[in-house]
Amino acid sequence: MKQITSIQNPFIKSLVLLQEKAKARKQTGTFLIEGKREISLAIKGGYEIETILFLPELISENEINKLTSKQVNLIEINKEVYQKLAYRDTTEGVLAIAKTKSLQLSDLKLSDNPLILVAEAPEKPGNIGALLRTADAANLNAVIIANPKSDLYNPNIVRSSVGCLFTNQIATGTTSEIITFLKENKINFYCATLQNSTSYHTQDFTTPTALVVGTEATGLTQEWRDAATQNIIIPMEGEIDSMNVSVAAAILIFEAKRQRGFNQL
Q: Which helix (H) or strand (E) holds 74?
């Protein structure tokens, strides 16, 4: 088995770039995953693992072999190398190099009566991670990111989603592309916005539905508001007129789940 003990090793330097640079992830078509749970979820979600690096003081080769039934390259590293690569101290001493997936709208496999979350231009990795966790909790059919500001394989998104990046069907596209996709698939879409809106709980989400949320700072663009099946609003009774986007999305999603009797999609 190969061993690497220097942070100056060219291969380790290339992995640091994967952590830090979206360009490196795009060029290589790979990204890093930390932790047993996250790696297991990635494998379950159909991600191809190329290499696993592990710190033997924290995890054994036998435990590594239990993570995947497929043959992968194993590299033993020391504490210095692990700390150089790991974002967290609590990831059990294991990292994996995985291949990215295509995030094309055409790759989505929709059910007969899908429930979808669309988020336009979310900026904060923590918000994206929270949206993905909510989508997983509700067993949504898909999450679509319009006009993404961040590479979805950014380590901060992988981390904040606690592996839910791998448990959701995800696609990206421009606002125009996504609106066209929804219309072609006869999916009604309800846009959360302050303008020309009706209360969210008055709408019927039991048919093919997409719930669309925008940023907290600027909300949804006019293109979404003009094209919506219906603009909807969450009534606010305090002094402010907006809430965290992941909280707003959760309220809308679970109203749709309630209307559907919390049935699986």
A: strand 73-77
Relative orientation angle of helices 245-259 and 125-137, to the nearest 10 degrees: 10
Contacts 24+ apart (CB under 8 A), 177-184: 177/105, 178/105, 178/118, 178/144, 178/146, 179/223, 179/224, 179/227, 181/105, 181/144, 182/116, 182/118, 182/210
Ordered per-residue pLDDT tens for the chain, 265 residues? 899 999 999 999 999 999 999 999 999 999 999 999 999 999 999 999 999 999 999 999 999 989 988 889 999 999 999 999 998 766 689 999 999 999 999 999 999 999 999 999 998 999 999 999 999 999 999 999 999 998 999 999 999 999 999 999 999 999 999 999 999 999 999 999 988 899 999 999 999 999 999 988 888 999 999 999 999 999 988 988 778 999 999 999 999 999 999 875 5
Q: Give me the count of residues in the chain.
A: 265
What are the helix and strand counts (H, E) for the chain? 10, 12
What residues does 210 pair with on adjacent strands? 116, 189
Whole-number Å distance between alpha carbons of 142 and 213: 14
Q: How far is CA 129 from CA 30, 90, 167, 168, 200, in A?
A: 19, 18, 12, 11, 24
pTM (2 d.p.): 0.94
Cα torsion for 210, 100, 149, 256, to the nearest 10°?
20
C-alpha distance from residue 170 to each of 13, 39, 92, 141 (Å): 29, 18, 27, 9
